[in-house]
Design goal:
This protein has 285 residues and is α/β, with parallel strands linked by helices. The chain contains five helices and five strands, in the order H-E-H-E-H-E-H-E-E-H. The longest helix has 77 residues, at 208-284. It is elongated. The two termini are 36 Å apart.
């Protein structure tokens, strides 16, 4: 059952741990609110740019542009895997890494771009070609962190190093629900149904190709930013849930140990009373 001092020390240690997990839960909740606000702003903008590019593709005479040409199944691919920089967030990292490993197994002609320290550390141990890794991006979330990544991806894609670029990340749905998403970001994915598309021809100023180039730059910049926001919100949601569960478990354990402490203490007191009574009785005899 253990002695009183050991149990008391363990209760104190668990109380300290509970304070840490509770603080981490509150920090995650604050970061989650910030990421959610960013998602609310970024999602409509990204969706509208996607729709505009899909509409132009639907009407475009420049159908041979690389941004619109869909790759062959065996084409050279760059896979961007988005994980967290830290752990203590449940299965957030493991599910993304598992999905990425399966993709690499199914598509061997693939190079890797890693966002997040956890994914980078895992894939360095695998027989995978990592072109570039990005870490520490989630400490200070602002739009500039996505521009370097977007610029690198555009450079590799338009220099014909890769025929398509895929991203695997956690999409935020709610605090308790995140979905693993595999998405093609370049070239622009085919959209079979476009609602509200005018059948009239468009006149482009300064020109169709220039408009497509400008929209493409905006599209990839905003799309990478949106993906980082989604991943950040999903990470904080899973961390908040994990730390809340850890805090509850610590409280349950403290309650159990307190009961055990009281039982041991009561047994010690009872033994002392018995010893005193026995001693007194022996003296009387």
């Amino acid at each position: 059952m253990g002695n009183i001092r050991d149990i008391k020390s363990r209760i104190g240690s668990i109380r300290n741990t509970r304070q840490i997990t509770n603080a981490m839960k509150m920090v995650a909740a604050a970061k989650l609110r910030k990421a959610q606000q960013g998602i609310i702003k970024a999602r409509p903008y990204a969706d509208n740019i996607n729709h505009m590019l899909a509409t132009i593709k639907f009407k475009s005479r420049e159908t041979d542009l690389k941004i619109f040409v869909q790759p062959e199944p065996t084409a050279k691919c760059a896979l961007v895997v988005v994980t967290a920089d830290r752990g203590l967030c449940g299965s957030f990292n493991s599910f993304v890494i598992k999905a990425a490993l399966q993709y690499l197994k199914d598509h061997p002609n693939t190079d890797l771009f890693c966002i997040g320290k956890k994914g980078t550390d895992i894939f360095k141990k695998k027989d995978v070609k990592i072109i570039k890794s990005y870490t520490g991006l989630f400490n200070e979330m602002n739009f500039s962190v996505s521009l370097d990544i977007a610029s690198d991806l555009k450079h590799h894609f338009f220099s014909n190093e890769y025929d398509h670029i895929e991203v695997i990340y956690n999409e935020f749905k709610s605090v308790i629900q995140q979905n693993i998403v595999q998405k093609q970001v370049l070239p622009i994915p085919d959209i079979k149904v476009l609602e509200g598309v005018s059948l009239l021809d468009y006149l482009y100023e300064p020109g169709e190709e220039e408009v497509i180039e400008e929209l493409t730059n905006k599209y990839i910049n905003v799309e990478i930013w949106r993906i980082l926001l989604e991943s950040s919100a999903a990470e904080q949601g899973t961390r908040m849930t994990a730390m809340d569960s850890a805090t509850d478990n610590a409280s349950d354990l403290i309650e159990s140990l307190t009961l055990q402490y009281n039982m041991v203490r009561q047994a010690a007191i009872t033994n002392e009373i018995i010893e005193i009574a026995s001693g007194a009785e022996a003296q009387n005899q």
